[in-house]
Amino acid sequence: MSGDLVNNVNNVSLDENHVLKNRKDEDHVDPWNVVSSSDTGVDYDKLILRFGSSKIDDELLARFEKVIGQPVHHLLRRGFFFSHRDLHSILTRYEQGKPFYLYTGRGPSSSSMHVGHLIPFSLCKWLQDVFNCPLVIQLTDDEKTLWKDLTVEESYKMGLENAKDIIACGFDVNKTFIFSDFTYIGQRPEFYRNMIRIQKCVTFNQVKGIFGFDDSTVIGKIAFPAVQATPVLSTSFPDIFGVKKIPCLIPCAIDQDPYFRMTRDVCPRIGFDKPALLHCKFFPALQGAKTKMSASEANSTIYMSDTPKQLKNKINKHAFSGGQTTVEEHRKLGGNCDLDISYQYLRFFMEDDNELEEIKRKYSSGELLTGELKKILIDTLTPVLTRHQEIRAKITDEILQNFMTPRKLC
Ligand code: TYM
């Protein structure tokens, strides 16, 4: 078994069946659940060791900037994208003028996406502009039917709604193909054939180890990881790539890494390059960084469809405060930015480093109160949501159809 499946750095967490065991004091991160043992959230350095990925360090960012001839996106600069696999090889291909594509996705579990989803999709949009390359976006409506209390029809419909949220992030229709598994897998036999090639390489024992499946897991779930792996094989998209074997780069949050550890193990065995990955941290739930923001937990979540009033109420009512219990104490001791959710959210959305630093200084010294910090967050996020909703409202069924039609991309 390759190093992608067996964690060679910290293999104390693997049992004899290669099952990743979480010790009690460890964070739990898989594609369906994220729970941290600490109030400040997941320990990402430990996660890098456990998953066997590589840290995005200053040297890599410097190379990135040199290769693309411009500063990197603030999500990279601020360390939200903190881990990678084989990014160097993608940068080298770019330097050499060799092709590659981007691949990302969404599992439609709610009709609106949430602000946390903007993290991978914003970076994808930036990467598409910078690299001028094709992007494929998978809507795993099948995954959500299998894992959630949703019918085939419901998750398919949510996928179409989510596609509008994705398009509103500004993707170029000439370079982007969005597909629903329920539709596309029946449209192109090349996809299904590749899926079977992958399924033939992975045993039940391996997916038990990677995903924690057991004897009572429904068979649809057991087979599903191959569906998310298949877009990594460029020949699954004959309209875009023909029969050419082209590698891809996958931006996603680190919860999706188990799928791609499995995929990276399989690829060389069926004659394809391993996919490269860029992993981001989790946008935390409103109640605190112990869990990630999740579309199926309405109270922990700011949806892209929330009205300014809903946004204001949610932040004022639920956003966990790192401030002190009384104004007097707060003025004396100051607030804790590491715990404060409003400050943490600002780190994602406030692009001006100096302004953010000034807010941190004032909040930590007690000069700024929790209510005032929340107001800054509300004033920052309201225009983001309003603008998104305005753009989304203009996305007609025809535009959606254009993005979702299998076709040649520029
Ligand atoms: P899903 O719908 O859970 O999430 C979509 C993308 O958003 C990331 N994400 C988050 N990022 C930051 N903070 C959060 N709180 C947060 N919650 C989710 C996810 O990591 C993902 O990148 N199975 C996938 C769909 C999929 C996919 C892919 C994702 C299919 N192919 C390829 C990434 C790459 C899913 O259910 O994602």
UniProtKB/TrEMBL annotation:
Keywords: Aminoacyl-tRNA synthetase, ATP-binding, Cytoplasm, Ligase, Nucleotide-binding, Protein biosynthesis. Belongs to the class-I aminoacyl-tRNA synthetase family. This is Tryptophan--tRNA ligase, cytoplasmic. Signal peptide: none annotated. PANTHER family: TRYPTOPHAN--TRNA LIGASE, CYTOPLASMIC (PTHR10055:SF1), TRYPTOPHANYL-TRNA SYNTHETASE (PTHR10055). Pfam families: tRNA-synt_1b. One of its GO terms (cellular component) is cytoplasm. Its EC number is 6.1.1.2. InterPro entries: aa-tRNA-synth_Ic (IPR002305), Rossmann-like_a/b/a_fold (IPR014729), Trp-tRNA-ligase (IPR002306). It is found in: Cytoplasm. It comes from Hypothenemus hampei (Coffee berry borer). GO terms for molecular function: ATP binding; tryptophan-tRNA ligase activity. GO terms for biological process: translation. Gene3D superfamilies: HUPs, Tyrosyl-Transfer RNA Synthetase.
